[in-house]
Known about the structure:
Distance between the termini of chain A: 13 Å
Structural class of chain C: mainly alpha
Largest sheet of chain C: none
Order of helices and strands of chain A: HEEEHEEHEHHHHHEHEHEEHHEEH
Oligomer: heterotrimer
Amino acid sequence: xxxxxPAVFRIPRRHAPADAADASDSIRTGETRIDPEAVLEIxxxxxxxxxxxxxxxxxxSVRPGRTLAVVGESGSGKSMTFLSxxxxxxxxxxxxxxxxxxxxxDIARLSGEALRRVRGASISMIFQDPMTALNPVFxxxxxxxxxLRAHERVSRSAARARAAGLLERVRIPEAxxxxxxxxxxxxxxxxxxxxxxxxxxxxxxxxxxxxxxxxLDVTVQAQILDLLADLQQETNMAMVLITHDxxxxxxxxxxxxxxxxGRVVERGSLERVFGATRHPYTQALxxxxxxxxxxxxxxxxxxxxxxxxxxxxxxxCAFEPRCAMGRGRANCGSMRPxxxxxxxxxxxxxxFFWHSLATTGSA
Amino acid sequence: xxxxxxxxxxxxxxxxxxxxxxxxxPGFMTGLVILAAMVIIALGARWIAPYSPVAADMTNTLAAPxxxxxxxxxxxxxxxxxxxxxxxxxxxxxxxxxxxISIVLGVALGSAAAFFDGWLARVLVAIIDILLAFPGFxxxxxxxxxxxxxxxxVIWAIAIAFAPRVAAVMRAVVLTIxxxxxxxxxxxxxxxxxxxxxxxxxxxxxxPVIVVATVGAANAVLGEAxxxxxxxxxxxxxxxxxxxxxxxxxxLASHPMISLSAGACIALLVIAFNLLGDGLRDxxxxxxxxxxxxxxx
Amino acid sequence: MGRYLARQTLHLVVTLAGILTVTFFxxxxxxxxxxxxxxxxxxxxxxxAALREQLGLNHSLLVQYGLFIGHVLHGDLGTSVVTGRPxxxxxxxxxxxSAILAVAGMTIAVLVGVPLGIVTAVRHGSxxxxxxxxxxxxGISFPVFWLGLAGILVFAQHLKWLPALGSSSGGGFIExxxxxxxxxxxxxxxxxxxxxxxxRSAMLEVIGHDYIRVARAMGxxxxxxxxxxxxxxxxxxxxxxIGVTFSYSLGSAILIEVVFSRPxxxxxxxxxxxxxxxxxxxxxxxxxxxxxxxxxxxxDLLYAAVDPRLRTR
Lengths: 363, 297, 313
């Protein structure tokens, strides 16, 4: 299986790669068909801020036990998509369209108490910056018991005991003592573990990890992600890994979605997206990774042009101004390319000329 | 400003696109309009006021509001409206003078306290703290008592009483600017410290200082009114709004218009300054936060 | 924690020393000759000279300062030129009336201002937010003595619910209370307007923090988020707001005392100023500044109790 991936990704995989046939049914192109096996299906989410559409008709889904990686630059809308799914978009932003099916139930329709109960218990989110994600004036124990008691009727002492157990599960040494510590007394890695503990405390069906290791040291990164993968195996929960680090994607994800300027531009299994790339942006991303085995002194590839301004997108394809392929081609600048199936089922690309990559590309 | 270090300074790259943002803020525009109207009234007092503010007419004391005297007359027969019109200029004079003086003093004191190190800075910080311990009005009162009751002494008293607050704000801002990269860059190319202070630090710290200045103007109007009311401010028969309130106090039950109208004038001007300050704060805040995030520049 | 206390104490001592110094030089700037005032217009030059000698006015300023500090350390703030009694005694006797007014006023201000600030922050942009903030804007823009006069006009003159002036008509506790209501309410409402505005800003800032969004993502109840998780973080800025507005309220209290003809430090200081009673002015200004410093120091200690991040420094 490794042979189909670019050289840089020939690293030991975290999970045995899933059967390619399994992936075929899970994601459909453009139709509103619900995947009966997906635990979370985001269908056509559209989120706007004054002057800009930050999430533009995004559809994603993920099955139990699997990890979907959502890849993109800062500002591509990857975090905003899931904040929208959870109803956490603050004014002046608004979610204007879309369904969010959690086990078939559209939680985008929920509000108030019903939504609150879903959050944290059925679907939870781990945020990017552990330094600011914990409340500075309460102890770890107090914050965890607040979470537990918000969803279940437990006594304070019982909640405390459970909290200690959770901290042990995320491999925090001296868990009981840590309950009385304040966030500023813990390192970044420890704080992230606490946040992970809180995210899985109520055994949610889906955990969304928004760049969980970006703010941490590289040495701690692997520990945190391995921990998440282990927890995933224990509970068979679905995971969404939002990241811009392709190395992490190769190691931990089975499905990949690539986002650009608030839109999904490519989506499919890991093997397909990485080994048989069908979108110029994705290809440019891979090409820009420095090759350890390349010749010393060779030039680094950067993607030409500037990152997109979501408030002023071109009429056609958002990537067209920087696309090596599309320059001069008729439709790219004026028509928005829809997501279409490529040469493999369930592998979609938002490019009119994806087939050029099939002939000249990596696989 | 051709050095690369200077081009990193966010304050030097600010365009004029911001003017439009202010125009969209309803509170800010309201305050601006009120202030402009007051300035016009003050400048044109000579033509707008129907009578002289100090012309006593003992045959027509305490007249009720009428066509001839829109707000009636006080116990000396003086037209209240004219006194109010002329009082506008005094209040504005106090407000702007206090603003300027307290900014100059406060910016100097605060930036020195934050920018330089060592015992000098500690002494300056101590001075600011000590002066802040006195309730502002009390300090102004004591200063006016010490220097006599003229317009200039009132202005200086209020300005000196307010300057520590400006200094404290300035100090806080400078402390956040100091660690920024462009300061380090300027220092590393050998720029003199005082020059860095003047060229880089001060322009970047102006937004919060400008906001505090509007507070100072509002405080100044209220402070002058309070001092006049206590008899310690600009002495009668000067038509300050505070004096008018004091004059009307004895006749509050029968002729409330005298004191009430003067108070309304004060409130209107103070509201204007507060609206300006709030508007500035709202418009500048996202900018200030964005600058804070651009630390890596 | 010990280091924190030590630093606070040092800061307190330095500030008190500074206040003494500033007050001394401030008062010495008041023009006029106390000896002249005491003995009247017909005093002879010899008598004036003798009195000046006695009051120590002939020494250089620095020597006077030294003597002053010495006296203060012995608890002697000088003697009132007008009444002949120790200035400290005069001030201490004026304190209770002012204290009652200040405490009542600040209590009203905090109990009204803080919740309003929180509610408007949480309901940012709603009708109630705009309405309350407009009222608060008016509250900080009208001079407090004008509000007092308006209050007298409405409640004492027209509605005749409450007495207008003085601190009590000689009646007992109830009478004193009736005389306290209007001045305390006016003071309280005026300061509450400040507190509400500042609390709103502090709360808005806290609500914008990441950990609030995380709590929401975890499904914590909105009421818990606002009143427990957010408010506890806003507590330090709110305490600081209370400290600053307390200092401001003392200035307002002086004006309120004059409007309502209430006895207290304010009236005492004003009378002392007009009679050139150096020692009494000095003692009065000193007392108020010291009270502000003590209140702020107490608040500083409270900060450490509230915010664990301050304890380890």
